[in-house]
Amino acid sequence: MKRTVVKRHAWWPALSFVAMTLLPVAAHAQSDEPSGDGSSLQQVLESFRADAQAAEARDTQRLQALLDDRQALEQAVADAEQRLEAAQSRRDELESRQAEQQQQLAELEQQRSNDAGDIGQVSSIVKQQAGELRDALSDSWLTVGGNAQLPPRLDDRGLIDIQTLHQVRQELAALVAESGRGVRFQAPVAGPGGDVEPREVVRLGDTVAFSQGDLLQRVGEDGRLSVFPRTPRDASQALQAFQQGEGNQIVVDPTDGDVLQALSQQPSLWERFQQGGYVGYVIVALGVVGLLIALAQYLYLLRVSARMRRQMRAPESLSDDNPLGRVLARFAALGRDHAPEALEARLDEALLAEQPRLERGQPVVKLIAAVAPLLGLLGTVTGMIITFQSITVFGTGDPQLMAGGISQALVTTVLGLITAVPLLFVNTALNSRSRRLIGLLEGRASAVLAEHLEAETAAAQVSVQERRHGAHA
């Protein structure tokens, strides 16, 4: 009787809760529905309420039947307990069978290990060697353009049988044979710009592969063929001649591509010039301007030297196309009635008037030669600032970042020195030639002045003697 009371208290509150929950929800839905559809909503609510009441009545009737029929209730409980005992018995039986099967599996594994003997160790060694060989030859040329293949991976297999060992041996023998062969074949090759086109490729063992004078490399997981960014000119000519059958020399990189990679990263002269940036462009522009000015002035001095030599060979015919002729003509136009000091001053004035033409352009060349290294230093400091800013962002974990930035920063210093050194030599040559011409002018003018003064002195002495003879007479 006690069990019946417990069951009644367990089911009845649940059913009462369902009924109490659904009725307020329906009432709330009814209150929120617009007045236009009130009749249809009322019908739905009434139908829902009727279904709920019918379900509640059925559950109540069933519960009451169970409570009234104590014998049926006890029978149901007994059946449930019997089914539970059967399930527990079945579980114990399955666990026992699982333990027996695990024991049998351990015995079979032990028997297999005893029967295999050294085959297991040999199998593990073969698996390891095959995997290492496959990894080592993943980027090899032996599988390109030939029939050789890499040995399969054996890690996911059990014991290696004789057939698998024979297959691995054949594949290794084919790879060894390919290492001593040279083959020609057609294959798609990616150019420096990324365009892919079919080319004739020559492969010599596992040493080198090239096409049309370009060394090739394998890129990507699928090993696509691509040309190196930069192949040295001598190497390209030798490889192209060998492919065309006109030469018997090839180029081999014994470092497996490290040297070629370094050569590909080495910038050309134009790329190195571009690394200087705007400061480098300014330095080179100033250097070109300085050289043009120096060249024009040097040609002018050569022409002046030739004309002065011609004037010195014909001193009686003065010409105004050279400094010496203009100075002598100006001195001759002064007349003979001036004092020696006045003549000397006029002659110096004529020489000073010719000197700027002979020294024209030299201050500009000298200034550019002095400014170019300073501009180079400015570019270096600017590049170092940018390098340290990159280090601040990316850290110092990559030495190539620091080396590349410093290298680019020093390019402007190199450009400044390359510009300044030739300009210094050119300025020295211009100064030397102009000084020599000015010295020649001064020497010739002094000689003319001295001859004029000597002539005047001689004339004065003759006049004095004539006066003395007239007085005695």
Describe this protein's structure.
- The protein has helices at residues 2-32, 38-68, 70-116, 119-136, 162-178, 233-243, 258-265, 269-275, 277-313, 323-332, 340-358, 362-394, 399-472, and strands at 182-190, 196-204, 208-211, 214-219, 224-227.
- It has 13 helices and five strands.
- A hairpin with a 3-residue loop joins β2 (196-204) and β3.
- The longest helix has 74 residues, at 399-472.
Could you give a short description of this structure?
By secondary structure, this protein is of the alpha+beta class. It is 73% helix and 7% strand.
Write the layout of secondary structure elements.
Elements: H1 2-32, H2 38-68, H3 70-116, H4 119-136, H5 162-178, E1 182-190, E2 196-204, E3 208-211, E4 214-219, E5 224-227, H6 233-243, H7 258-265, H8 269-275, H9 277-313, H10 323-332, H11 340-358, H12 362-394, H13 399-472
Parallel strand pairs: 1-5
Antiparallel strand pairs: 1-2, 2-3, 3-4, 4-5
